[in-house]
Amino acid sequence: MRGLPLNKVKMADVVQQATRENAIERMSATFSAVESSGQLDINELQKIADSIMYDVIDRPENLLQLTDIRLHDTYTFAHSVNVSIISAMIGRLLKLPKEELSLLTLGGLLHDLGKIKVASEILNKNGRLNDEEFSEIKHHPEEGARRIMEMADMLPHPEILARIAEEHHERLDGSGYPHNKKSNEIHSFSKVVAIADVYDALTSERSYKRPYTPSVTRNIMVNLSKGHFDESLIHLFFNNVAVYPVGTILKTIYGFGIVTKCEFGHTETPSICVFADNEGNMKDKPERIDLKDDGTRAIEMEVSGIELLHFIHKLTFNPMVYLTEEA
Ligand SMILES: [Fe+2]
Q1: 94 C-alpha vs ligand 1 centroid, how far in Å?
Q2: Interval between CA 9 and ligand 1 midpoint (Å)
Q3: Is residue 116 classed as helix, strand or coil in its secondary structure?
Q4: What is the 212 CA–ligand 1 centroid distance (Å)?
Q5: Which domains does the chain have, with CATH numbers?
């Protein structure tokens, strides 16, 4: 088979991989310290938040493309880091002053602190949670807020950090937990972290579920979860996420194409290189098309998962080769 392996296409993310890896490692140490001594090394935590924030500020030209580098038992730490990155990105888009951006980034890191108290068998359970397990999970927002307030003298604006931890599972229509708060009762930072939290959870792989693609995740969050999230925040967010990341295979009205470029504000209508007709027969000459001229109607479906493997196998050709030509 010609071309590059599917998993070897590297795209620029809003943070460097080294920043992410380092942050996950340090978060793991921070959570252990809180668990064993109830003490938090705020300098260490602030360093993590700052490294994320400065990457996000320095790389505004990059769309969000989360890289899944987490290991099985580091899920909570990697998740906290991703939530922090996404929150920082939304904060930057909102043009928050640096001090507030730093606080929001820190809030993302600490939002799930209360999970320290939840048994790891429940957190990593392979399958659906029963009622009892779910009610244990439901305590983590308040537990997190309580722990943050216990360490209040070590933290900047602890009352806001505690609200983020307590409110990140609240939903604007009052359907969330623990207090069924409604839109005007929820802090704006908690609304940001809620979006970051759900986006990362849906796009990540867990022992009990496959990751959803960014476009499926967008559909779930924008269309199937109406009333849950702040409308303007969610649109701002998805305008800056690679909804169809470079390398995605799309079935379009022009045939099968591979995404070669995605742009800010047009994340749902990327540029593609059409390499096969609608029946899947290779074209003699691939054609480059910018889908923003047609709008989303040109896209029939995204080819992903097992379907993608079958498709590539049948082609006996790896369309990723068009990405290197693009470069
Ligand atoms: Fe949570």
Answers
A1: 23
A2: 31
A3: helix
A4: 19
A5: 6-238 (1.10.3210.10), 249-326 (no CATH)
Q: What is the pLDDT of residues 177-186, one digit of tens each?
A: 999 999 999 9
Give me ligand 1 centre to Cα 245, in Å: 27
Q: Is 132 exposed, middle or buried (0-12, 13-18, 19+ CB in 10 A)?
A: exposed
CA of residue 2 relative to chain centroid, distance:
32
Between the CA of 280 and the centroid of ligand 1 the distance, in Å, is 43
Q: Which of 55, 105, 110 is nearest to 80 (CA)?
A: 110
Amino acid letter at 240? N
- Return the number of other C-beta atoms located less than 10 Å from residue 25's C-beta: 14
Alpha-carbon distance of 271 to 259, in angstroms, equals: 6
Distance 168 CA to ligand 1 centre (A): 6
Determine how β-strand 282-290 pairs with β-strand 249-252. Answer: unpaired
Tell me the angle at which helices 188-203 and 231-238 cross, rounded to the nearest 10 degrees: 50
Percentage of the chain surpassing pLDDT 90?
52
pTM over 0.85: yes
Distance 248 CA to ligand 1 centre (A): 30
